[in-house]
Amino acid sequence: MSFSTMLSSMGVGMLRTCLIFILTLLISLPLGMIVMLIRRPGPLPEVPRGEGTLKTLAVRLWRGFLIVLRPVMKIYIAVMRGTPLMLQLLAWYFGPYYLFGMSIRGYRFPAIIIGFSMNYAAYFAEIFRGGIEAIPKGQYEAAEILGYGKTQTFFRIILPQVIKTILPSVTNEVITLVKDTSMAFTLAYNEMFSLAKQIAASQTSFMPFVIAGVFYFIANYVVAFVMEFIEKKLSYYR
Amino acid sequence: MILQMDHIRKSFDGVEVLKDISMSVDSGEVVSIIGPSGSGKSTLLRCATFLEKIDAGEIRYMDKAAVTTNNEGKAEYVPHKELKLVKEYFGLVFQQFNLFPHYSVLKNVMDAPVHVLKRPKEEVREEAMELLRRMDLESRADAYPFQLSGGQQQRVAIARALALKPSILFFDEPTSALDPELTGEVLKVIRQLAEEKMTMVVVTHEMPFARAVSNRVIFMDKGVIVEQGDPELVFGSPSQERTKQFLRNYQR
């Protein structure tokens, strides 16, 4: 098998790898933000007096939601960080069958995306929390005195500063994700690294692994380049 | 009466920091609050600006009740919407400036009027530039806070507070985080505001400044107001032994 044939047979695997990567990021970043907002320590919201009933109801619901979900989120993060991703993928894929006797035909790819997203959301949540806690209390107090509402304070004052501080840690995590995509072979999904192994075995050649290595390296080079660009963009203030 | 605080009580973890404090501030008055560390003066300011919740007592701004005491003797704040309106009466300048680091000087001053009060941007920009001119910071409008000295940052913070046109401005030790060299420029600005009859309450350790600028000095110790009155009287011939002792310690 020639080099170019190898490359082209691995090409579809590369696309699948990219797909896992992109979908995981798209889901886990917002999900991590939601997990952080629930898990974040601090006083429960106070139910405002004399508000329109709808708002009071919403605050009440959110409050009850937090009371129940905070401990759940803690356990979720502990499990996601405390067990191997490979095991989690197996659990997500075979779980529905063993627990509920559901058919898992056609469920392979969704299981991979759920597995990766849930795992990475846990890590992102902790990174976000670190970023939020690094913001001095004075920023919140200044915003409050100036009359900003809670949502405005978060989006106008806090979040932009959080993004700047967490960027290096997020870069780390994203780079790890590029390499972790190879974990999908656990569920016999033919992403690039699985194909590389198959071709290497059938052709008794080491070349597919070299191609795989170069692919990961280039992908991460691009990731690092993009992240560095964003960091530079945000370096206008300290 | 711009601000009226009556029988304020505040405890932190069972330790009473404010013990039945009453004070009021009239329009155009400049009041300095002095006293040793831990006397409760900063807490009083934080209670007046609702950054801390009082346990009991009453707070009114412009004769509008913000906090009242119910029958059980516990403080009750007016509903959120009303409190929000009351908050527009005052501004606060922090010891640590607390400027928004990701906004330029001009945006720090403009952002709240534009996005909180929803005022037209062009109009706000003109006012903001005028404020920066008064703070002698016109040329630094496009700079970011980290590029400024502490004194300049504090002057931006004052401009930011003034941009919302408060009826009363509080200062929480505005020069305590500054190099001695830089305190002068901030005090000069406050003095200028006093001449323009801005109503202000200043918690400070700058005794000569308090004496020269304020109409009234309040000396606090251990959560109570020990003595208050005309600065010449409080500084010149204090009636309380505790005040004398405090001022003596200061002169050394």
Give the helices and strands, then pairings:
The complex is a heterodimer of chains A (238) and B (252).
Chain A lengths: L2 H37 L13 H30 L2 H16 L7 H26 L3 H9 L4 H31 L11 H12 L3 H27 L5
Chain B lengths: L2 E10 L2 E11 L4 E5 L6 H8 L7 E6 L2 E6 L5 E3 L2 H8 L2 E4 L11 H11 L5 H14 L15 H13 L5 E5 L7 H16 L4 E4 L3 H7 L2 E6 L2 E6 L1 H6 L4 H11 L1
Parallel strand pairs in B: 3-9, 3-10, 7-8, 8-9
Antiparallel strand pairs in B: 1-2, 1-4, 4-5, 5-6, 10-11
Helix pairs in contact in B: 3-4, 3-5, 5-6
Pick out its properties.
heterodimer; A: 238 residues; mainly alpha; flat; B: 252 residues; alpha/beta; 5-stranded antiparallel β-sheet; 11 strands; globular
Distance between the termini of chain B: 38 Å
Adjacency order of strands in the biggest sheet of chain B: 7-8-9-3-10-11
What does the overall shape of chain B look like? globular
Shape of chain A: flat
Average predicted local confidence, pLDDT of chain B? 94
Number of helices of chain A: 8
Main beta sheet of chain A: none
Radius of gyration of chain B: 18 Å
Largest interface: A-B, 23 and 29 residues
Q: Please, what is the oligomeric state?
A: heterodimer
SSE order of chain A, as H and E?
Answer: HHHHHHHH
* Major sheet of chain B: 6 strands, mixed
- Residue windows where pLDDT falls under 50 for at least 5 positions of chain A: none
Strand runs of chain A, count: 0
Q: Strand percentage of chain B, roughly?
A: 25-35%
State the total count of DSSP E strands of chain B.
11
Mean pLDDT of chain A: 91
